[in-house]
Every structure is written in structure tokens, then in C-alpha cells.
Design goal:
The protein has 487 residues and is mostly beta strands. The protein has a single domain, classed as Methylamine Dehydrogenase, Chain H (7 Propeller), CATH 2.130.10. It has seven helices and 34 strands. Strands 29, 30, 31, 32 and 33 form a five-stranded antiparallel sheet that branches. The chain has a four-stranded antiparallel sheet with strand order 3-2-1-34, with no helix packed on it. β10 and β11 form a beta hairpin. The longest helix has 8 residues. The radius of gyration is 21 Å and the shape is globular. InterPro entries: Quino_amine_DH_bsu, Se-bd. Belongs to the selenium-binding protein family. Its EC number is 1.8.3.4.
Length: 487
């Protein structure tokens, strides 16, 4: 990678330069044992994804953490393309927060990329007492060299959307990024766009409510979020709360366009399966509009036959099956948006060339809870799609449903894992808890749009030495379209 950067620093000068980067050879995935039959520490798996390699599609290294029931989740870097102009920086540490234990592991991936090792551990007490925060989720490196981690709660499990700053060299907790008293009601993901002096954060829910599964009554009780929070990047002040309303309940992954001049992006809202476009107005404020809807399907045999109608969200009763948009990402050329419908079982590719009017360019079903022969029968589908058959790769029927996504730099390969969060996995896909999750690969038509399954690629995490495990987010050592931000 350094040869491509000419010693300028980590990452790439522009998103389009990144698309010309080398093909991915290995990926890192956190593997979670919480809520499975094995009481073992979570670990970071290194998977070989180079087709010419003798260990292709295999886990080539497992780095065990030092505790049990951490629930590793999303990861980030100590330095990325936001530090491109600084030759003193190197992308050699993976920041790995634990969603349940609130522990943060700093992983050395620079000494031997195929065999990472633990460099440092930040204990939960540091987040509790120095920041009043817990349940860290998203980690981004900053152009300043610091590391910022969004949090979902306070030490008691209540919702609290604040941000922890780590020193980029010592990885000690510096303190809060936000000002006292200005944390959002809930936290989850965030993305910043320095050229427009803005950061936008999203809201999942109160950790104590979602810890062991999804209870629709908790939506009614106000334990889940439905807002985007707009922050001044320079002063760290919260400027706006964009209320998305019932159609925007549980906004999860937020993505600005990669072009650092862009004043817009997209957020996936899980509960009602909508994608909103957010944008800067002529007045300098920020607004949002719904641009994609995945309609629910009327079914019988679904474990959540009705969704109560809370007064503050006005969710209509459901005798139907929602899609539950969980992960989304945007290709580095800002042409395609991808997202997973974790309950329906499909991945969708939208052409977003017309930012306000995305159109469906590709779709593929890879399991889910609507498969033929299962307990759920589709009675009425507004999209008039046939009920999909089970996904079988190399003779294995895939348990669970496509969830976490990662796109190759050139946009031609989409990697997919099936675990969302162990408490929800156990509730919605108990077979996956018993059999373990999988990693798959989708071939992408970047000219006309379209998705097709690579039937020669499968990493079966049900066959791990410590027993079936839940593999989650994917990360490339050289950076990718969900971790790199350009200044």
C-alpha cells in the first residue's frame, strides 16, 4: 500500500484513487461467542480471500480476546485516508470496541497483517468514569490523529449518544468529544464531512432494552430512536435534531457520499425498512427525505404477528413481515447504494446517480425467514416476488440471512456475513446460533447493475475449533468504503 501512496500517509488521496488500489487479499472479522453454546472469548479472524492462494476461503489466524462475553461488533482504524497527507501516520492498529462489555481492544495489524496481536486494552472503567459512557459502537480515525468512538448508552444501560476520544498514539481515553449535557438521547453510528463542518449521528436504542432481543413494546415505551443528530464538526456543538418520524424509526448505518465536497448522504432505517436521503439546504440547515421503501409482506407463521402502535411513532399494526434494513454502504464512486434486508433475506443494489430517485439495479436472496418450506408463508407481496428458495452453497444450506456488507475497492465484489447481534440472532435465527454464521461473496455488475452469487466462495463459521461462532463486520487492511473518510 505504501508504494501506492508514495509515502504520503495511510490510505488514498481521493475515493477514485482508492478504486484503483490493489485487490483485497485478507479480511478481518470479529467472531462472537456470546449467546452461543460455547463460553469462550470472542476472537478476531483473519480470512484469506485471494483466489490464487492455497488457503483461499479459510480462516488463517484467530486472535482470542482476554475476556468472555465482550460482544465484539464494529471496528475502525487508528489512521485512514483522513491522514493521507501525514507521512508519520500508519494504518497499523485496528480499534475493536466491545458492544456489551464496553471494553476496547487495540489490535496490532502492522507487525504481521496475517497474524494480528493485542497491542493494548482499554478497560470499561475508563469509559465509565472519564466519559460517563458505555456500549461503544463505531470507531473512526480523525485527521487530527485522534480516534473517536460513538457510544450507545451510559454505564446503567440507558440510552446516551456520546463520543469517546482516544489518543492516537497511546490509546488512552482523553475524554468526551461532545460538550457536557449535549449527548443525544440515543447513539449508534456517525460520519463526518469536514469540508462542510458537519457530523451526523444516528440512534439505535437503549442498551438495556435491546440487550437480549427485540421487544416491540420497547418501541412504544420510547427505548428506540428515530432521529438524526447534526453536529458542528469544529465546535462539537449539537446543531439540529432531524426527526424522521415513524418511517425513520431505528436509523442505523449512516453514509455520506464519499466525495468530500458532497452535502448529502443516506441512512438506513430498520423498523419500517426505509432509506432516507439527508442533505444540506440553501439556508445551511440539514433536512431528510424518504427515497426508498421496502414494503412489508403479509404472511402467516411469523413470530412477530403484530407491531404495537406507539403514540410517538404511530407504527401501524403489522400482520406482516418487515424487511429490517440493517447494513448499508455506498460504492467509492458514489454510484451504487447497497443494503441488506435481514428479515426478508435479500441484498439490494440501487443506482443513486439521481440522488433523489434511486432505482433498483440488482437484488439477490441469500436465506432469510421467508424461504420456501419454512414456517412463514407469504400471503400477499406488494412487489409480487416469488417466495425464495433456500440458499445452498457447496452443499450447505445457509442459516440466517445476509447482514454485514463490505465492498471491494473496485466495487466488483461484495462480501457478506449473516450475524447482526447475538441477542437478536438468537431470537430471529436460532438455527444460526446452533450452526454458526457464514461469509459469502457476491459478484457485482458495475456497468449495468446486478448481483450474482459466487458459488465457489464460502467460509463456514460453524466449523470453527471452539464451536459454531457468529462472524460480524468485515474490514480490509488497506481500508475500505465504510471506514475511510476524505478531507
Amino acid at each position: 500500500l505504501s508504494a501506492n501512496c508514495s509515502g504520503c500517509g495511510p490510505g488514498y488521496r481521493t475515493p477514485l484513487d482508492a478504486m484503483k488500489g490493489p485487490r483485497e487479499e485478507i479480511v478481518y472479522l470479529p467472531c462472537i461467542y456470546r449467546n452461543t453454546a460455547s463460553v469462550r472469548p470472542d476472537y478476531l479472524a483473519t480470512v484469506d480471500v485471494l483466489p490464487s492462494s492455497p488457503t483461499y476461503c479459510q480462516v488463517v489466524h484467530r486472535l482470542e480476546m482476554l475476556n468472555v462475553r465482550d460482544e465484539l461488533h464494529h471496528s475502525g482504524w487508528n489512521a485512514c485516508s483522513s491522514c493521507f497527507g501525514d507521512p508519520s501516520k500508519s494504518r497499523n492498529r485496528l480499534i475493536l470496541p466491545s458492544l456489551v462489555s464496553s471494553r476496547v481492544y487495540v489490535i496490532d495489524v502492522g507487525t504481521d497483517p496475517r497474524a494480528p496481536r493485542i497491542h493494548k486494552m482499554v478497560e470499561p472503567v475508563d469509559l465509565y468514569f472519564k466519559c460517563g459512557l458505555a456500549n461503544p459502537h463505531t470507531s473512526h480515525c480523525l485527521g487530527s490523529g485522534q480516534i473517536m468512538i460513538s457510544c450507545m448508552g451510559d454505564p446503567s444501560g440507558n440510552g446516551k449518544g456520546g463520543f469517546v476520544l482516544l489518543d492516537g498514539e497511546t490509546f488512552e481515553v482523553i475524554g468526551n468529544w461532545e460538550h457536557p449535557g449535549e449527548a443525544a438521547p440515543f447513539g449508534y453510528d456517525f460520519w463526518y464531512q469536514p469540508r462542510h463542518n458537519v457530523m451526523i449521528s444516528t440512534e439505535w436504542g437503549a442498551p438495556k432494552a435491546l440487550l437480549d432481543g427485540f421487544n416491540p413494546a420497547h418501541v412504544e415505551e420510547g427505548h428506540y430512536g428515530s432521529n438524526l443528530n447534526v453536529w458542528d464538526w469544529t465546535t462539537h456543538r449539537k446543531l439540529q435534531t432531524i426527526e424522521l418520524g415513524p418511517d425513520g424509526a431505528i436509523p442505523l448505518e449512516v453514509r455520506f457520499l464519499h466525495d468530500p465536497d458532497a452535502t448529502e448522504g443516506y441512512v438506513g432505517c430498520a423498523l419500517r425498512s426505509n432509506v432516507f436521503r439527508f442533505y444540506k439546504t440553501e439556508k445551511g440547515t440539514w433536512e431528510a427525505e424518504k427515497v426508498i421503501n421496502v414494503p412489508s409482506k403479509k404472511v402467516e407463521g411469523w413470530l412477530l404477528p403484530e407491531m404495537p402502535g406507539p403514540s410517538h411513532l404511530s407504527v401501524s399494526p403489522l400482520a406482516s413481515h418487515l424487511g429490517l434494513i440493517t447494513d448499508i454502504l455506498i460504492s467509492l464512486d458514489d454510484r451504487f447504494l447497497y443494503f441488506s434486508n435481514w428479515l426478508h433475506g435479500d441484498i439490494r443494489q440501487y443506482d443513486i446517480t439521481d440522488r433523489r430517485n434511486p432505482w433498483l439495479a440488482g437484488q439477490i436472496f441469500l436465506g432469510g425467514s421467508l424461504v420456501k418450506g419454512g414456517p412463514v408463508k407469504v400471503l400477499e407481496d406488494p412487489e409480487k416476488q416469488e417466495q425464495p428458495g433456500p440458499c445452498i452453497i457447496k452443499g450447505k444450506r445457509i442459516p440466517g440471512s445476509p447482514q454485514m456488507l463490505q465492498l471491494s475497492l473496485d466495487g466488483r465484489r461484495l462480501y457478506v456475513t449473516t450475524s447482526l447481534y447475538s441477542g437478536w440472532d438468537k431470537q430471529f435465527y436460532p438455527d444460526m446460533i446452533k450452526e454458526g454464521s457464514v461469509m459469502m461473496q457476491i459478484d457485482v455488475d458495475t456497468d449495468r447493475g446486478g448481483l450474482s452469487l459466487n458459488e465457489n466462495f464460502l467460509v463456514d463459521f460453524g466449523k470453527e475449533p471452539g464451536g459454531p461462532v457468529l462472524a460480524h463486520e468485515l474490514r480490509y487492511p488497506g481500508g475500505d468504503c465504510t471506514s475511510d473518510i476524505w478531507l
